[in-house]
Amino acid sequence: MRDVRIALDDQAMRIVYLLYERWLLRHIKQQPVPRHVGLILDGNRRYGHRLGITDPHSIYALGARKLDDVLDWCAELNIPTVTLWVFSPDNFARPQEEVSGIFAAIESKLAALAHDPKIHQRRVRVRAIGDLALIPESTLSVIQATEQATRGYGAMDLNIAVAYGGRREIVAAVRAALADMATGPASFHEAIERLTPEVIAKHLYTAGLPDPDLIIRTSGEIRLSGFLLWQSAHSEFYFSDVNWPAFRRVDFLRAIRAFQGRKRRFGG
């Protein structure tokens, strides 16, 4: 009898959440949604260990599968740009077995995206952003193949931030801007005078894309850790206690609803 009661309680909760999701979705569609959502995917290891999974590749493969759901949710709301932070340069300090497991999961997922009918039907352009010189050649090869397979699309932009650090990005953008100026007649001092926020922004990894309106971090951590430091100057933030692989549609809709409830002043 106890097992029957538990099963009935679980079924009742699923119905409640389904009704709640429908209510959220109906209200969300009545207001503007973010043009760009950034997600910091945190809590993979904690979720895997809770399930008794110790193999790093298996742990991070769970999180990689969640990407399909996120794309579905964003397509449902017509959110045109999504950036997922999957690996930081700081993560290279983790045990080699874990680092290898992360890159194996990244490779598997990107290879699947290149052949995913939904990606092509939705015309999703997939790009990797970060210091790609740091990543294994096998991962880089898969990234290049996926980018090539989706290069002609533009209905939705999916950015995979790998070996990405916000400080590194800003340094790289400033260097690139100065290098461009060095090829012209400008002196060093003239180049410094011409270095503006707009010039630097043109050399960021996300150049040409809107800055993120909303950044979501999972697993209960309340910090950016260097994610899109330049681009997030006017972003709204939402921190979820749910570990990334367990992140649900209702959690995503709550984040969007919270964003819509905020009054964005942009310094005014």
Verbal overview:
With 268 residues, this protein is of the alpha/beta class. It has 2 domains: 1-30; 34-164 and 205-260, Undecaprenyl pyrophosphate synthetase (3-Layer(aba) Sandwich). 50% of the residues lie in helices and 12% in strands. It is built from 10 helices and 6 strands; from the N terminus they run αβααβααβαβαααββα. The protein has helices spanning 2-28, 44-50, 56-76, 96-114, 117-121, 137-149, 166-182, 188-194, 197-201, 249-260; strands at residues 36-40, 81-87, 124-129, 156-162, 214-217, 236-239. Strands 3-4-2-1-5-6 form a 6-stranded parallel beta sheet. Helix 6 (137-149) links the parallel strand 3 (124-129) and strand 4. Helix 4 packs parallel to helix 6. It is globular and about 75 Å long. The chain starts with a helix and ends in an 8-residue tail after the last helix. The model has no long low-confidence stretch (mean pLDDT 92).
Summarize the structure.
With 268 residues, the protein is an alpha/beta fold. It has helices at residues 2-28, 44-50, 56-76, 96-114, 117-121, 137-149, 166-182, 188-194, 197-201, 249-260, and strands at 36-40, 81-87, 124-129, 156-162, 214-217, 236-239. The chain has two domains: 1-30; 34-164 and 205-260, 3-Layer(aba) Sandwich (Undecaprenyl pyrophosphate synthetase), CATH 3.40.1180.10.
Describe this protein with a few key phrases.
single chain, six-stranded parallel sheet, globular, 10 helices, Undecaprenyl pyrophosphate synthetase, alpha/beta, 268 residues
